[in-house]
Amino acid sequence: MAPDLALALALADIADGLTMPSSRRSGLVVETKKDRTLVSEVDRLVEAALRDALGEQRPGDAVVGEEGGESGSGRRRWIIDPIDGTANFVSGVPVWATLIALELDGEVNLGVASSPVLSRRWWAERGGGAFVSRAGGPAERMRVSSVASLAEASVSSGSVRDFKRPEAFLEVARRAGRDRGFGDFWQHMLVAEGALEAAVEPVCSLWDVAALQVIVEESGGKFTDFSGERRLGTGNALSSNGLVHDELVGVLLGAGS
Questions:
Q1: Is pTM, for the whole model, over 0.85?
Q2: Beta-carbon neighbour count of residue 62 at 10 Å?
């Protein structure tokens, strides 16, 4: 295992050790940020702990996190979401995870998504394949599904109110063989596992998707924005097994709506 990936997995261990004991803890301090999303004291605690660890292990690397912003500069940048799914975390819905990515020269090179409450961890390094560990078991290599038709595909998406064009959401649901709303990181990891054919996320930030892109791609899938461009930070994301990707992009851009 490459040293950077080993470090990312060790960082996930640190995060899990802080998040699991605090899930649904009584008296948890929660605030609403300017963008109307929630942040808990545990979000800040986890990010601070990971920044401290990176400061010791990779002092020359830049870091950007959801809660602490960006520090440092250079070719290497760690991207951290301490708790993806904070609203779930504070309300007891068991769908949240810590997301950790390393970007080299603008390309995400590795990603880890760790969800101790689901007893799952997913990871990938560029060119090395994507893996999942369930309930602490051995790593299993992941591959996306082989379903080639949107009419036979299972698709997950975010909330309809987050779509700039709600009719696109409805058209995706109409054309898909099955539509569900798993949300957040989990829907993209289900694509990587081959359980879903696509996941549509109408609102997201860099730290929400950086780790997920490399995992989906190393599973054989595609991860783009709604226009089909392979880029992060544009505010939306689409992952798929690759076979239904173009049709979904057409729907999201308005073709046939």
A1: yes
A2: 17
